[in-house]
Amino acid sequence: MRRIIFLDSVDSTNLKLKQLADAAPNGTAVIANCQTAGRGRLGRNWLSRSGDGAWFSVLVKDARLTSLNAEGLVFCCALAAVDALKELSGKEILVKWPNDLVLNGKKLCGILCESGFDGDKLKWSVCGIGINLNAESFPPYLPYATSMRLETGLVYDSRQVALDTLARFDTYTEMLYNDGLEKLTGLIAPISATLGREVRAIYAGTELQGTAERLLPDGSLLIRTTDGPVSVRSGEVSVRGLYGYI
Ligand code: BTN
Description:
Oligomer: single chain
Helix content: 10-25%
Number of helices: 5
Number of strands: 12
Radius of gyration: 17 Å
Strand content: 25-35%
Structural class: alpha+beta
Bound molecules: biotin
Order of helices and strands: EHEEHEEEEHHHEEEEE
Strand order of the largest sheet: 1-2-3-7-6-5-4
């Protein structure tokens, strides 16, 4: 049985769950109708207006979680959300490495996984998922954003989408623990919006360009540059298509 905290409004479901992380059991989730300070990767904000989407986070505390396989949690989130949204809409939803879901070339969903360590040991991870469901428009500073409503013309039940995604998330975390991260990268590759494309990766103050060639077993992305292959890890990297969002 999962403990789920439903909130009308919260600063950020990730922040809330991080405050609870030491005492709360594995699987605890926070689902909010709106976030006043939704957080994205790389210090960005995440627009989380009331009723516009599913904004939720789940706590992972499991002795099988290591600093190596924790990289796979973002893939567990992505695969779970793709499954839930595909079942609802029949649409082809792709994964833009490492943490975005893409529909018709635009960003539909973002994932932010944050972890707490005890020395080298991973004590907890908070996996936050934001799915744009019912937004009818986005501000001009988000030119690549889209919602399920904009793409399908339908209105979605955000609580149900969050619950469906959470149920599927458990299946993928079991897969991660039992079969390893490589199994998940094998599932992501065929639905990748990144592989085979010309990309620009920006990390640690450097920038490189090349073809996104393949996902490595540890979840990193291999980019073929004119100077040879470079593998980039998901943590602090921004990867964009050379000619647009993907
Ligand atoms: C990104 O694309 O930059 C990641 C966005 C993650 C947004 C979700 S919404 C639920 C959870 N709470 C947060 O504050 N952020 C994540």
